[in-house]
Specification:
This protein is α+β, with helices and mostly antiparallel strands. It has one domain: Hotdog Thioesterase (Thiol Ester Dehydrase, Chain A, Roll). Helices cover about 20% and strands about 40% of the residues. The chain has helices at about 10-20, 25-30, 60-75, and strands at about 30-35, 40-45, 80-95, 100-110, 115-125, 130-145. It has a six-stranded antiparallel sheet with strand order 1-2-4-5-6-3. A hairpin with a 2-residue loop joins strand 5 (about 115-125) and strand 6. The protein is globular.
């Protein structure tokens, strides 16, 4: 599949709005840096809190932004009034994830009515120099007729963990 073409403002807004509702991306400090047809880039600046014991980005942070990049790449092709849900993904860590930031690029490889397969590439970046640190493949599902839930509506009151 070819991708990377510009999108309408409505689709870009829908993707950015959904991304903004992701609590984990906000917690990590990740940003949606590019949105094109079938291709999305997410950037994650380095912070000590995102590192593992050797000082590299933790694989959990690397995998999380890769998962979201692929999911949103697929979401650019989904119809209005739908949402995206990851079915599975596999990551291979190819080099220590070091740098000032990580860039995760999700690209749609094959898109069907319900399932979409994406390629995931994550680069460790220092200035303009990029090193491939992880590659992966992902399958996501189009949740037809099920748009994103708004903040505050995703948990039932008995799931809050408050003990009340």
């Amino acid at each position: 599949m070819t991708g990377g073409d510009p999108l309408s403002d409505d689709i870009v807004s829908r993707v950015r709005g959904s991304f903004a509702r992701q609590g984990l991306m906000a917690l990590l400090g990740a940003t949606l840096s590019q949105v094109r047809r079938g291709e999305v880039t997410i950037t994650l600046p380095f912070r000590q809190e995102l590192s593992q014991q050797h000082g590299y980005f933790h694989a959990g942070a690397t995998s999380a932004i890769a998962d979201s990049a692929g999911g949103y790449a697929a979401f650019t092709l989904f119809p209005e009034n739908s949402s995206v849900l990851t079915v599975e993904f596999k990551m291979n860590l190819t080099a220590p994830a070091r740098g000032d930031r990580l860039e995760a690029i999700g690209r749609v490889v094959s898109s069907g009515r319900t399932l979409t397969v994406c390629r995931l590439d994550v680069f460790g970046c220092v200035g303009s120099e990029r090193t491939l640190v992880a590659i992966g493949q992902q399958t996501v599902m189009c949740m037809h007729g099920r748009p994103d839930q708004h903040p505050g509506t995703t948990r039932r009151s008995d799931e809050t963990g408050s003990g009340d």
